[in-house]
Amino acid sequence: MNYTFDWSVLWKGQSGEWLWLGLLTTLELSALAWLLAVALGIVSGALRTVPWKPLRMLATAYVEFFRNVPLLVWMFFWYFGVPPFLPLGVQDWLFGHGLEFWAGVSALGVYSGARFSEVLRSGIQSIPRTQFEASVASGLTTFQAYRHVILPVALRLIIPPATNESLNLLKNSSVALTISVAELTFQTRQIETYTAKAIEALTAGTVIYLVLCVSIASVMSWVERRTAIPGLIGGGDRRGRRGARG
Amino acid sequence: MRKMIALTMLLALLTATVGPALAETTLEKIARTETLTIGTRTGSPPFAYVNSKNEWVGFSIDLVEQLVLPAISQKVGKTIKLEKKESTPPTRIPLLSSGAVDLIAGTMTDTRARRDSVDFSITFFVTGAQFLVKKGSPIKGIKNIDGKRIAAQQGSTNAKIIREKAPKAQLREFPDQPAAFQALIQGQVDAYTNDGIQLAGLKMKAPNPAQWEIVGDFFSYEPYGMAMRKNESDFRNVVNNGLMDGIESGKFFEIYDKWFGPKGELPYPMSAGVRQFMIYQVVPK
Description:
The complex is a heterodimer. Chain A is an all-alpha fold. Chain A is 75% helix and 0% strand.
């Protein structure tokens, strides 16, 4: 291959600073979008299982609408589609105050919320129906049954698939570069612009994403062990597998 | 952890073995596949774009088809077909290095930094950066964009120059021209900067051209060249000879007139200075 690698472009000049700024933006964007996604996911995931049809339909409509349209389209929707419906003064204010970042948070959060919702629903449905019935029989209202019995169990059961979705969310945040959010992937391209060394810059981005995701996955696996319910997922055979991992 | 290290090494090994597989020169590859693959644009009229008849055409594409392709065919002694692929500023150098395309013929500015990674043909067009604004905008050039929101294309030379010459401007970078122009239409940004000739092309294609204005002196020098993989002087000579023959025979100027002449897609007469520069690039036979 007629290509001379020059890894020094990653620390010469402003590259380090750019990667750092990009990393911060990626983390900020992902963290805010994650909070939004988890909140939306818990509410709509729980609503999809309640014994009242209109609420179930509302939650289903949200999930199917948002998860079945590509994330890129949602980015354009929040950035280009929403502002024209706002009053002019609000538009101007938004344009001057990081609209692209908040459009990115909304797009990523609402889209991932629909995916989280499905994860939570599967968790709730894996709990025997009798638990809900027993809670109601013991005098709890439906809300109380979800709040004190169903959700605390379901949220622990779904940690592995929820970790998966969280990692997806982090990686999907790179789509925000299409609406000019200067996140990590954007900054790797910036380095390419200045140095014309695309492969080195992309490799740096890849390694940073990999390290981020692996760290999040290990923290979550720790959380999973800490909150495991004996007798359910990971409760009993966890120790045996951990030994084999070496 | 041991598994992780093993996996990383495996990855490194895989990437390393890709190299020798590509040890064929570009001319050999073209002769074997009987195809020249170029990376070009779909939304940069009149250099390379998809026209209203859904044909992928433009000045840069004509130069390759009518000047470069015949030179290559003659050199390898076979009729070579042309294949076009979309390449954007952030993808064009990787596409070239990976061997996915053999020549970038679009709107790529020849710069010294880029020459560290790729080689360029002789210059085939000369322009400079300006701003596209809504008619009546207070922006008149690079001197009064402080605090203003300026759109640019990611990976372009213009964004880099704005960052250096007007650090107080709020730069918003979009992956392609349509997204940047949409942001300008809706007011997300106050101006869009690109090479003057591309702005003229964009304005011409806009639904309401009279609504837009191109302002400011050139604040950069943008000589367009065709890029190819580094250290392939045989291939570069063929490309350059094709272009030089075209300039010498006048064919180059005919193609220029087809796109930029008074009856062309985008009237942009070539100045006497540029014409002279083109002719001086031609070395004797």
